[in-house]
Amino acid sequence: METLHTTLLIIGGGPGGYVAGIRAGQLNVPTILVEGASPGGTCLNIGCIPSKALIHAADEFCKARSYAAETSPLGITGSEPRIDLERTVAWKDGIVKKLTGGVGALLKKNGVKLVEGWATILDGKTVEVRQEGDAEASVRIRCEHMLLAAGSVPVELPFMPFGGPVISSTEALSPSGVPQRLVVVGAGYIGLELGTAYRKLGAQVTVVEAADRILPAYDADLVKPVAAALGRLGVELRLGTSVLGMDGSNVRVRDASGVEALLEADCVLVAVGRKPRTTGWGLENLMLDMDGRAIKVDNQCRTSMRNVWAIGDLAGEPMLAHRAMAQGEMVAEIVSGKRRHFEPAAIPAVCFTDPEIVVVGMSPLDADKAGIEIVTANFPFSANGRAMTIESTDGFVRVVARKSDHRIIGWQAVGGAVSELAAGFTQSIELGAQLEDIAGTIHAHPTLGEAVQEAALRALGHALHI
Ligand code: FAD
Ligand code: NAD
């Protein structure tokens, strides 16, 4: 068997692994990246990008249907639209192909060797790689540094395993048709992003959530406009309800008071979380310290074994692509000899529901729990001109600042297109801005950004437009 030698070996070519590869290549660190499926990982192939493509297609279709139903207040009417889902999926696949091809090209341009196949760890410096379907490994790789970036997999409910009508997000992103009745288990990121998209594509959607509200990780005020929009769309929410299993083609559920019911379903999307991919590739041979289901890392992404690093979903929450990328970039720099630590002031999180939600840093509740005295204010989109012109007046921007020096420690927003506010929010916290900095910055008119400035002004006691 051929043996390759390298300084940095990266296992997994998702956002964490491929960004580490690009940066290591830029810094002239000899690097090999092993990827068993397709460069780009979960995010580009079966996650962030395809889900946002499907959400966009569903939005467009839903809008066109409102024109046909003559319910658009804009006065636009039109004939009954149809959707050719095969073409929609082909369009989505085209975007994925362009992006994953781009990742391959960037790795090549930066001198990173891409080895296609599944790595099995033999020890902290050696892996063997076998191609999909091959019984035997075809190549052995020895390295000085091993970067584990194998990502995560969907959590399966033991009494309702994936297969047949029970699907994960992966299958939901390449539908061959729109099911008449879709039951979604889990009202988290995936359940609500994809549940909303399927409703807009025409499915009857019921969401079953164990907690007593949707998106339980976010504060109650933030999710209210999303819950209201789901109601208007006709998505049925069954909160405080547990799934018991399949009963023929029905889903058996039990609510908080113990009452059982059967929900008719042509398809069941299980979206109850993801877990780090820690089995099936020899990881146990390293006997690394764990933090729950994830690999334990320090603030440089070092594991408990010297020169073995772990990043991204494999290293636990928050399981977000931009965190994985930032960690990957940092590890490549440390391996090249730079001094770096992973200590971001804040990691933004965006939920691409309708309306969207953005959270960065601390909410008022987080600050309260941390014993920080705060000033906080909301500015509603109902008082923002741009929001009116894009028909999205539900929602608000909220700022949270330390009372003592007005330093901003958190932003939250809910509303149409607020995902694009995430950059400014995160920059202001990373740069240590105070309320006065945001209040004193000229924000373009008419934009949603004016609500950001107004929230800061309001926290200072002199909002102008409310
Ligand atoms: P992954 O992207 O999971 O990549 C790991 C790679 O390692 C995979 O390509 C896998 O094939 C490969 N691999 C694993 N084991 C081996 C092995 N033994 N040998 C070789 N290769 C191996 N995050 C956001 O920030 N924004 C979003 O909008 C968003 N939307 C999402 C939507 C969905 C439906 C899903 C499922 C996830 C979404 N996420 C989103 C989460 C995001 O996809 C992950 O946080 C991100 O992909 C993690 O990157 P990673 O590099 O850690 O791992
Ligand atoms: P999630 O953790 O966001 O939500 C899971 C939901 O399922 C929770 O509300 C939980 O209370 C509920 N739940 C758990 N067990 C249940 C049960 N037995 N019955 C009913 N409800 C149950 O998980 P997800 O939606 O699967 O997404 C996985 C991860 O992928 C996310 O945590 C996130 O890291 C990532 N993701 C991010 C984005 C984004 O950034 N926009 C989008 C999609 C996915």
Question: What is this structure's SSE topology?
Answer:
Blueprint lengths: L1 E10 L3 H12 L4 E5 L5 H6 L1 H21 L16 H25 L3 E4 L1 E6 L2 E5 L8 E10 L3 E3 L11 E2 L1 H4 L8 E5 L3 H13 L2 E5 L11 H14 L2 E3 L3 E6 L2 E5 L5 E5 L2 E4 L3 E3 L13 E2 L2 E2 L12 E3 L10 H15 L13 E3 L4 E6 L2 H6 L4 E7 L4 H5 L6 E7 L5 E8 L6 H9 L4 H5 L9 H11 L7
Parallel strand pairs: 1-2, 1-6, 2-3, 6-19, 8-15, 9-10, 9-15, 10-11
Antiparallel strand pairs: 4-5, 5-6, 7-16, 12-13, 13-14, 17-18, 20-21, 21-24, 22-23, 23-24
The structure holds flavin-adenine dinucleotide and nicotinamide-adenine-dinucleotide.
Brief write-up:
By secondary structure, the chain is α/β, with parallel strands linked by helices.
Structure explained in plain terms:
By secondary structure, this protein is α/β, with parallel strands linked by helices. It folds into 3 domains: 181 residues, 3-Layer(bba) Sandwich (FAD/NAD(P)-binding domain), CATH 3.50.50.60; 117 residues, FAD/NAD(P)-binding domain, CATH 3.50.50.60; 111 residues, Enolase-like, domain 1. Helices cover 31% and strands 26% of the residues. It is built from 13 helices and 24 strands. Strands 1, 2, 3, 4, 5, 6 and 19 form a 7-stranded mixed beta sheet that branches. It has a 5-stranded parallel beta sheet with strand order 8-15-9-10-11. Helix 3 runs antiparallel to helix 4 and helix 3 runs parallel beside helix 6. 44% of the residues are buried. The mean pLDDT is 97. The structure holds flavin-adenine dinucleotide (FAD) and nicotinamide-adenine-dinucleotide (NAD).
